[in-house]
Amino acid sequence: MPGNGSMPDDGSTPGNGSAPEQGEEQSEAAEKDDEHEESEPGRSRSRDLLLLVGICLAALLLVNAFVARPFTVPSGSMEDTLQPGDRLIANQLAYAFGGHPQRGDVVVFDGTGSFLPESAEPPGFWDNLRSVGRDLGLVPAGDTVYVKRVIGVGGDRVRSTGPGAPLTVNGVPVDETSYLDRGDQPSDVAFDVVVPPGELFVLGDHRSASRDSRDHLGEPGGGFVPEDKVIGRADWVVYPFSRLTGLDRPSAFTAVAGTGGHGDQR
User: Does 148 qualify as catalytic in the annotation?
Assistant: First the structure.
């Protein structure tokens, strides 16, 4: 008969069971949507938590790299101001934007080239990787990092006549009794130096137990620390908690202000 070939081979006709099948499919889809909506808030909270943790870690790394970096005091060269094992925070913004270290500041610096010789070998991949890790606070500072007190800045003449006499900076005697370790002399050795521009003359507060600028006077670099090797100013002792304190600049160098050199730079 005309039109017989137009019928579906499976025998379905309009209204012959296709509507219930579509209804079942729609019902199953709705159930899946409900399950998805129920599980989505949990997944969303997990993603938010991971995002928050990632942001916090990134912020911490940025703070370590550019703002404030923790260091552990390795020796007794700065006693009694700092004790071995003290955990301190170096303020890396203290000399940013054109600032300069000042006489009396306690500074954290890389001693390579001043207290330690420069390596004859160019840095390799792992050296660069460790350097980045140190900058981010992920790797310990290592034995090239020192903590000392600034005694003279660029242009200053720092002089000692040996035991029993105070240091003089630009001819002005400096009273260091507020921070020198008990029983220590300002210096057991005599010296007379002029600090080159852009460099620092640094000493430990425990003078009899400190290897500092005095010990490197006859070496390349003369023991002077370039300002660009300063990592930051030691501003706080944060651990152990019993020693929690700020490290303020002492008044010992007030009388030296305006006597010459670059000591009035900020």
Answer: yes
